[in-house]
């Protein structure tokens, strides 16, 4: 994963979990203590946009609904091995659709 924050950097083998939600954004405040696993907090309504690039990169962007600006983002890169190329690319190259 890569990002401007050092907590995001490094190589990891495993599942990445992202909790993103804001349906009750103004109902209550956060606790004063920020847990070590909490990287970013926002009390505004927002959404997540995922963009996949070239079979091996996934861009995660958190945007506020009010202005559409990106307030947090990171990219997950995978060492992609095209295990389906013999099936998928073959069909496309022969115009079977």
Automatic annotation (TrEMBL):
Pfam families: Metallophos_C (PF14008)
UniProt xrefs under InterPro entries: Metallo-depent_PP-like, PAPs_C
PANTHER family: INACTIVE PURPLE ACID PHOSPHATASE 24-RELATED, PURPLE ACID PHOSPHATASE-RELATED
Phylogenetic classification of the source organism: Eukaryota, Viridiplantae, Streptophyta, Embryophyta, Tracheophyta
Domain Purple acid phosphatase C-terminal per the UniProt entry, residue ranges: 20-73
Protein name: Nucleotide pyrophosphatase/phosphodiesterase-like
SUPFAM superfamilies associated with the record: Metallo-dependent phosphatases
């Amino acid at each position: 994963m890569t990002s401007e924050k050092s907590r995001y950097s490094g190589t990891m083998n495993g599942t990445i979990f992202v909790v993103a939600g804001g349906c009750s954004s103004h109902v209550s405040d956060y606790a004063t203590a920020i847990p070590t696993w909490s990287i970013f907090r926002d009390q505004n309504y927002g959404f997540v946009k995922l963009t996949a690039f070239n079979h091996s990169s996934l861009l995660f962007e958190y945007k506020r609904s009010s202005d559409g600006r990106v307030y947090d983002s990171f990219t997950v890169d995978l060492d992609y091995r095209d295990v389906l190329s013999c099936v998928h690319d073959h069909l496309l190259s022969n115009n079977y659709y």
